[in-house]
Amino acid sequence: MEHNKTDRELQDSYGDQQKWVLDSSLDSRGEIPVRARTGAWRAALFIIAIEFSERLSYFGIATSLVVYFTTILHQDLKMAVRNANYWSGVTTLMPLLGGFVADAYLGRYSTVLLATIIYLMGLILLTLSWFIPGLKPCHEEMCVEPRKAHEIAFFVAIYLISIGTGGHKPSLESFGADQFEDDHPEERKMKMSYFNWWSAGLCAGVLTAVTVIVYIEDRIGW
Prior knowledge:
Blueprint lengths: L1 H18 L20 H23 L2 H7 L5 H55 L16 H21 L3 H6 L7 H35 L3
Helix pairs in contact: 2-5, 2-7, 3-4, 4-5
């Protein structure tokens, strides 16, 4: 009887391990997650897609930034390179702040969510600064000096993108890895593949940005 009871307890324990995520994780409602409904590739592929989009956006801007400063904002080359370096430097340092906020206050999920919202605000403002008549660089096809409103909107937009990048970089990759439970044999194997797909998504975003996006900016329009 005692032996049968032990076997039944082991089976129940194994069943719980298969049904529930028991690594102290909680879902958005603060409850223990059901394994079949959350995490693993269901969430990880979405996170990889976010990284692909973020790298596509960032390098699509960074690659042509000096060209934009010189041709649209009519800055001399020295000032254009300096402004591009300022932006690049701020963007590089922002993950230090983002990592601190994630660890000390918000956690990875909230930090990624907030960073994504800020990033999208920057991208939307960047797009509107080219299409809204009051924010366009000029009225005419050719102009000597761009509008001040366009310059302000443009710089606010790219620095919002810097802040968004600062929230993504220290949190997104590890948040994706959190979707796989180390104590679950199948998910542990999936986690090894996750980092390969993460790197593939990142490189695909960069490659698409420096080829397709740059081609569109050069041949079709900003």
